[in-house]
Amino acid sequence: MKIVYDPLYEEHLRGVAHPETADRVAAVVAHLRSRGLFDPLAPQDAGEAALLRVHTRGYIERAKQECERLDQGSVAELSTGDTVVGQRSYEVAVRAAGGVMTAIDYAAAGRGAAFALVRPPGHHAEPARGMGFCMFNNAAVAARAFAAETGQRVLIVDFDYHHGNGTQAIVGGGLSYVSTHAHPAYPGTGVRSLRRTAEGDIDVSVPITPFGISTEGFITLWATLLRQAVALLQPHAIVVSAGYDYLSGDPVGDLGVGIESADALGALLREVAQERGAAVAFCLEGGYDPVQLGVAVARTLFAYDTGTVAPETDPRAVPAPIRAQLEEMAAWPE
């Protein structure tokens, strides 16, 4: 699998004590190199037209100006929310969004899947607001660009510990979203949602108690959710908001789920993509233990690349309220 990466991604908040540190991507690159899995692909920058499909012009200009006003080495919060930025953060964020566009373009050309190892992350960024460590919604920018340019459906899959409020906000127009996340937890959104638009796009949010879920339950949940979503939508592309802060031991998230879930997710995504013939692009979201993050990304890549068989699942491992939600979704007509 190609890894979309640029050393520029490490320049956002370099040297700043912050959970979303440059050490995160540096650790992933180092671990992938050690495993022989680092096959780099240079990213493009996201153009203005691509950003404007998701974000307002006023917000884009505000973010740019607030970064440019900072002195070298100084940081501040964006005026729209809890996202710390430095002088080069806008430049890095534009290339992060473009990195996911590069990944989906590569995959859509039939060359195989790609993983955009980008930062800052994106799924909390709403049309007119950056928040939650995010400036631009990387997955949404890439998905919207693909839908606009091809006229085909895109499914965004989000397994981050936190709800992707920014992505959910733009569902429609060929873009669908399915998410599991802790609730109630930051950002306070992510109540149970099971919605289908008049155009046939879907918005499915599956809240999980912050007390956690068993590893088997998490894997079974995603095996069911992915297969049902792909059967309903028949998407031509799948963009994965790959946030690994759901893993046990993560200092910011932690749903108590074991690292073997990373293998299962890679296997499941390959399975559904091959059945449909869909292009798959991953993009990094959360995951705040750099060492664990490197291992998790590598395990997902390896499982996807090698065709690891998805594990057998047991619906009884899924908590009853979630099982009821999945059963309701299964009743939707294709």
Explain what this protein looks like in three dimensions:
There is one protein chain. The chain is α/β, with parallel strands linked by helices and 334 residues long. It has a single domain (2-330), classed as Histone deacetylase domain (Arginase, Chain A, 3-Layer(aba) Sandwich). It is 39% helix and 15% strand. The chain is built from 10 helices and 11 strands. The strands form 2 sheets. A 9-stranded mixed sheet has the order 2-1-5-11-10-6-7-9-8, sandwiched between helices. Strands 3-4 form a two-stranded antiparallel sheet. A hairpin with a 6-residue loop joins strand 3 and strand 4 (84-86). Helix 7 runs parallel beside helix 10. The longest helix is centred in the N-terminal third of the chain and has 20 residues, at 89-108. The relative contact order is 0.14. The mean pLDDT is 97.
